[in-house]
């Protein structure tokens, strides 16, 4: 059996996914603003040989434009939230092996500034940084950065293509290997002839360069992506080294993985150039019965309001106010999520389901594995046979969810050869793929050497990268 990879899926906020759980007596989510919470978690994850801590992030509120954010504030629903990149700088010096993945939207940072920050972090972390590329889905986020409205869905991915072109040019093309000399005897720190301006001119960005940091151990950070619409999948196939997926069953996962790998091959990459991480939460017990009792206990804390506000389904798109939970679903008008409503209708043929029922359903949006460690290991094996390479472990509580993984599940997984027994050496990319830098077939690689060609030689056309 091949080993699975494990990431801890977290956010620098109170309530990330499992809304309401911050009230649990053992939960430390409410102290997310205390650095000790994260240092303790990061060290726990290293004890459990986790590959990476993966920070989600958003730069705005969930909900319709102009709507109330009373529920968001009450539930701690991703507000307050803090910048994950500042946090991973602290975690880089508190850990030795753990990969440090953070989300950043093309909306929130200019690519020149972002590329510089990431190179700096990858130096600090000695090559353990990963970037989850997102394009933002919130109207409020768009307004926070001066836009009238959220850019249209597929156009956001076109925006991301140009953003990547800029950062790839800076990370891969601006500095040649060997440009950094540190030659004390000759008094030459670096060789200007091997450091290049990139002179990027595109629809959204004009960036002269050169990149200010010298290349970091990975140059381009390890690249994650989440989002599985046709445009999202095509984008992942071109760029991602790992995709975060959330299909409801192994069969659905198999289809999604096969399609994305086919797309990657069509884009000149190999199918195995992308690792697929499935999101799961676990409830582990010494017997299945005990696990079910624990699940019931955890469910008592679940906030239906929180789940509904997170998905926009429980908020009226007309008034911006939450629907009362007893509202029949027939009265709910929404632009998205109709399939979830239909699914619930079919499950409750005897009566008209309500908004409250929907909340309970949404709370199970990510597959949940409940039972003894052996049962959970069986399930993971089934998912692995369907093609997943790793798990993004969604927590109920910081830090107990991860401690339980280490104590009960990890030994069983190790015994079956499903989890590693020690960390590999080197950068995060080397541990996933065996090399520090992106392979030549990745689109970032086309910028290597592109700016050192004589002026007469044609530079790669902008459009070729799209
Ligand atoms: C599992 C998962 C995790 C995501 N995490 C984030 C996140 O942390 N921040 C964010 O702005 N968007 C996040 N997204 C949104 C995606 O990046 C993407 O914008 C969204 O899914 C819409 O793209 P799609 O239509 O291609 O699926 C996430 C999506 C998924 C499925």
Automatic annotation (TrEMBL):
The keyword Flavoprotein applies. It holds the Pfam family Bac_luciferase. Keywords: Flavoprotein, FMN, Monooxygenase, Oxidoreductase. Residues 21-389 form the Luciferase-like domain. GO terms for molecular function: monooxygenase activity. It comes from the Bacteria. NCBIfam families: FMN_nitrolo. Belongs to the NtaA/SnaA/DszA monooxygenase family. This is FMN-dependent oxidoreductase (Nitrilotriacetate monooxygenase family). The lineage of its organism: Bacteria, Pseudomonadati, Pseudomonadota, Alphaproteobacteria, Hyphomicrobiales.
């Amino acid at each position: 059996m091949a080993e699975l990879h494990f990431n801890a899926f977290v956010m620098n906020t109170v309530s990330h996914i499992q809304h309401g759980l911050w009230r649990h007596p053992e939960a430390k989510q409410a102290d997310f603003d205390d650095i000790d919470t994260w240092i303790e978690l990061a060290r726990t994850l290293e004890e459990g040989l986790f590959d990476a801590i993966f920070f989600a992030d958003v730069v705005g509120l969930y909900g319709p434009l102009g709507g109330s954010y009373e529920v968001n504030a009450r539930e701690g629903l991703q507000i307050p939230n803090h910048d994950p990149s500042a946090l991973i700088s602290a975690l880089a010096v508190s850990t030795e092996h753990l990969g440090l993945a953070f989300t950043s939207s093309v909306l929130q940072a200019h690519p020149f500034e972002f590329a510089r920050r990431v190179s700096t972090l990858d130096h600090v972390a000695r090559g353990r940084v990963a970037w989850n590329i997102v394009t933002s889905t919130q109207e409020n986020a768009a307004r926070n950065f001066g836009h009238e409205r959220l850019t249209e869905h597929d156009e956001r991915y076109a925006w991301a293509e140009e953003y990547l072109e800029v950062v790839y040019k800076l990370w891969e093309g601006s500095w040649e290997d060997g440009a950094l000399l540190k030659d004390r005897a000759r008094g030459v720190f670096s060789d200007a002839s091997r450091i290049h301006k990139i002179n990027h001119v595109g629809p959204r960005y004009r960036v002269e360069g050169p990149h200010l940091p010298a290349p970091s151990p990975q140059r381009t950070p390890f690249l994650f992506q989440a989002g599985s619409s046709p445009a999202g999948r095509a984008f992942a196939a071109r760029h991602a080294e790992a995709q975060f997926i959330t299909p409801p069953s192994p069969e659905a996962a198999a289809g999604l993985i096969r399609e994305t790998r086919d797309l990657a091959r069509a884009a000149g990459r190999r199918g195995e150039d992308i690792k697929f991480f499935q999101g799961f939460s676990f409830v582990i017990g010494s017997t299945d019965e005990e696990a079910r009792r624990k699940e019931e206990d955890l469910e008592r804390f679940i906030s239906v309001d929180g789940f509904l506000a997170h998905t926009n389904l429980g908020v009226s798109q007309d008034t911006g106010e939450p629907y009362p939970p007893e509202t029949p679903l027939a009265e709910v008008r929404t632009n998205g999520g109709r399939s979830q409503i239909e699914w619930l209708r079919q499950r409750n043929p005897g009566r008209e389901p309500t908004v409250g029922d929907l909340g309970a359903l949404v709370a199970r949006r990510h597959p949940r594995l409940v039972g003894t460690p052996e049962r959970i290991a069986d399930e993971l094996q089934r998912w692995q046979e369907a093609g997943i390479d790793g798990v993004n472990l969604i927590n109920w509580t910081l830090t107990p969810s991860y401690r339980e993984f280490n104590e009960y599940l990890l030994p069983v997984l190790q015994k079956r050869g499903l989890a590693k027994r020690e960390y590999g050496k080197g950068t995060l990319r080397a541990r996933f793929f065996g090399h520090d830098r992106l392979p030549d077939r990745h689109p970032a690689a086309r910028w290597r050497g592109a700016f050192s060609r004589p002026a007469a030689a044609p530079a790669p056309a902008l459009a070729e990268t799209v």
